[in-house]
Amino acid sequence: MKIKKHLFLDIKGFVQGIGFRPFVFHLAKKYQQQGWVVNTNQGVSISIEGANILQQYFLHDLENLLPEFAEIHSLSVSSKPLENFNSFFIKQSVEQGQNSVFALPDISPCAECIADLLNPESRFYRYPFTSCCNCGPRYSIMLKQPYDRVRTSMEKFSACPECLFDYSSSENRRFHSQTIACRHCGPQLSFIDKKGIKLEQGELALTRAIECLKQGKIIAIKGVGGFQLLVDASNAQAVEQLRLRKLRAEKPFALMVKNLESARELCEISELEQQTLISYASPIVLMKRLNNTLIVEEVAPNNKLLGLMLPASPLHHLIANDFNKPLIATSANISGEPICITEQQALNRLSNIADFFLTHDREIVCPLDDSIIRVINNKATVLRRARGYSSIPITISQSLGDQVATGGQMKSAIAISHNNQIIISQHIGELDTLNSQNQFQQALADLQAFYSLNPSSVSYDLHPDYHSTVFAKKTGLKENAVQHHHAHILSCMAEHDLQSSVLGFAWDGTGLGLDNTIWGGECLIVNTQGFQRYAYFNPFALVGGGKVASEPRRSALGLLYGIYGDDLFTTELSHLLSAFSEQELKLLRQSLKAQLNTPYTSSVGRLFDGVSSLMGLCQLNSFEGQAAMLLEQQVSDNCDDSYSYKLEENKTIIIDWQPIIIEILAEMSQQTKSQIAAKFHNTLAEIMLNIANQAKQQRIVLSGGCFQNAYLTECCVKKLESAGYTVFTHEKTPPNDGGIALGQLYATACNS
Length: 752
Hints:
- The chain is α/β, with parallel strands linked by helices.
- The chain is 31% helix and 21% strand.
- It is built from 21 helices and 31 strands.
- The strands form 5 sheets. The protein has an 11-stranded mixed β-sheet, with helices on both faces. Strands 28-29-25-24-23-30-31 form a 7-stranded mixed β-sheet, sandwiched between helices.
- α5 crosses α9 (314-323) and α14 crosses α16.
- The longest helix is centred in the last third of the chain and has 23 residues, at 673-695.
- The two termini are 55 Å apart.
- The model has no long low-confidence stretch (mean pLDDT 94).
């Protein structure tokens, strides 16, 4: 006789929004179980009654045959008294207890939905909002947990009889799909002008948008997580118009292409880059550019890389297929402002940029930029963590309880914790404008509400003038200030769940140090007691203070002044200062002599800027990091040589960069720029290895914006690993300031 039992299963993880309940339903039918499955705030609960031997098969398949994207992070099984269920059914979701930290990200269209989209026989043919259990919007439309249509912005769209039939059909892939919709009952497109007047609707709206793109117009479209600007990438005049209107002189634009074959026409694509490009997240992937005439040079001037993405939604697929050429697809915002998510925001902020707007009536709840990925050291490394990534938690060993961290000023992102899970918010951007600051505060409020958190403490950067710091100090929560570069190292440690002592290299542009000077070339020994500044680059003058970040020539001037002093301004050396006018030099000389507005920095980021300027690559940045990017991209020759440097060994090792600069100046007329750039990068890696040998720390951590440089990172890792060190770099979180909030939270774990 078969023994009948009632088992209750409680599951946490990525188990909502990916067809998990239909999967359980089919398993129950297969193994003759009666009972129910339900979404809860914390995950999924299941009751099954049936033969115990069949229940063991059920449990085996439950853990081993999961739907794509599903992840079980915890599964508890308990016995219950028999209730004698007479069928197996999907229960209406219940709201109870603490919300889960596992919210599924938006998923780009699956192959079946793309086939429906392009199949004239399908009732979803050319419907821009088709989806199923395996794909579609998730985090961007969720109002609260658990995940059900009534708690998303799809709630206002009542399913038609045909959609209800699919929703109720257990063999249909749209069985219990919460975003199911068709052209008869779902969201609709509208094509409007700058005044908000509707010109076309539905299929005609899309047709009109394509026509305008072919005419060289700039079209703002409402994408998955916000508005984007689309422009024909083969039309030089249209691209130039976009640059003028967006005030974006040279910064590269990302491109959308219709498929992988189209991407291969533009870039060299490795296996890992391909996997990333076609992944569910459809991020922008930075890859090596091929020489061709498919796009104009103005798309990414003087750049050896291109950022490519595949369509992230059915609407994007239709546009890419109909246009059939590469399209610029860039965030629809004014420089320094957050992306627009509502039609009214778009009309208010973009009317001086876009010619027309292709919009729709499904609300975007969470603003999400396109994520940016670059393969560095054979890892798909996140440089901007947004759509497709931002809702995925980082798991650590320690329990932090409920806390919040406000991050930094640049590339702003917030982080919250619940027990041993840390959620990093979507990329917010720079906090220099009122709109960005408002979005920062809204993002924090939304995170706390979405995950039902009641934080006990707030962590923040030491810099008193960062908006994130000012805001943190007004929360009334227990305060925890974390030094910027300490947070950088901790962010990478958190990603890898490292707890014991490491030697961390935090190389970036700027961050306030414990001594109130500007740090950025730090070698820190980090452990559970805090950190020790083990070594740093000899500080040099930032001529003009904050202006230096946008004028690499000022970093060069600071480096030269550190070597030659006031003799720099004599006739014999004046050729080194050709980037400045005579009047500028007169004022800057006075500033340096009087030490007015010339703070000192140890920043490797500014060292990169200075070398780029001295090599004549970039005197004025038109976008952040341009000078350093151009210096990295100069490296093409095979070169293992390096420059001289000195380590001044006191209580803290000081790295003397002066021999590097002197030798670069001597080689300017003898070596190619490629060789000089390679030797400069190699020297930084040699310095790192030398310090590691002295510090006697087995585990090395690399973090900070400088490690967005693939050549630098790979050169450093190669040298360190060849010498027997274990090296940790970023992958799931950005090495730049987008990871600072994670490090701030991890500081509380390390100190507990």
